[in-house]
Amino acid sequence: MKKFKTITGVLFGTLIITSGCTIVPPKINMTGEKTVIERQIIGDYMELEPDAWIVSSVKTLSSEGGGVLSAGGYDEELIAAINIRSFHSDKIIRYKSEGSIGEASSGFIVYRQIPAYEKQKGEKDILLSVIKNENDARLVIFKRSLFLKEKGQPSQDELNSFGRAFAAEQRSSALQGDWIQDAAGKWTQK
Questions:
Q1: d(CA 181, CA 190)
Q2: Are 33 and 42 in contact (CB under 8 A)?
Q3: CB neighbours of 96 closer than 8 A, spacing ≥ 6?
Q4: pLDDT tens, residue by residue, 36-66
Q5: What is the C-alpha separation between 28 and 114, in angstroms, rounded?
């Protein structure tokens, strides 16, 4: 490792080192303005203009009859189900592109046997866990959506009808190569 000698002097912004090297620092211009970086790091203080108004708006559904709002201010079960679907969305897209998951006519996803997962039990268990989590979240969303619409617990027929309508939406938005089941129960690849 090379050792540097001590600095012997500074001459008009130039450092002179006894080893014969000269280090010239870059020219710095001092201004009263903050740079973009300084504004991001330190922030800007700016008073509001005298005629400025701050307006905030929040859109919610009524809490009458057990709507989206609960004692905590929102439907925790519905939000949790939406978050689960969001969390698994990339994995489900990947599994669908592999052909290991299909959209059933019931509104739920199902495992489609492919050799890669039949040979790897650990990978198949992960896939089946994702399917279960997604289907559980979908069921919660179906129930809560119908509950909010009907102001009461939905019947099994209402859930089945909602699931079929959801499945129709999923079929129409399926990507090329995804497996989908039509209303008659026939599986096709889009």
A1: 10
A2: no
A3: 102, 103, 174, 175, 177, 178, 179
A4: 556 656 655 555 555 555 554 444 444 444 4
A5: 65
Taking the complete model, does pTM exceed 0.90, yes or no?
no
The answer, yes or no, to whether residue 115 has pLDDT greater than 70, is yes
Cα R_g (the chain), whole angstroms: 31
- Structure token pair of residue 19: 């080893």
CA 7 to CA 14: how far, in whole Å?
11
Range of weakest confidence among 25-39, 51-65, 159-173:
51-65
Write down the pLDDT at residue 173.
Answer: 87
Query: What is the chain's percent helix, strand, coil content, to nearest 5?
Result: 45, 10, 45
Question: Would you list the domain boundaries of the chain?
Answer: 76-189
- Which residues, including other chains, have CB under 8 Å from residue 43's CB and lie 6 or more apart? none
Give the confidence band of 150 by pLDDT, cuts at 50, 70, 90. Answer: confident
Q: How far is CA 2 from CA 5, 19, 22, 23, in A?
A: 10, 12, 16, 16
Determine which helix (DSSP H) or strand (DSSP E) holds 94, and give its type and residue range: helix 76-98
What Cα–Cα distance (Å) separates residue 188 from each residue in 91, 102, 126? 21, 9, 25
Measured CA to CA, the distance from residue 122 to residue 29 in angstroms comes to 62
Residue 23 burial (CB count, 10 A): 9
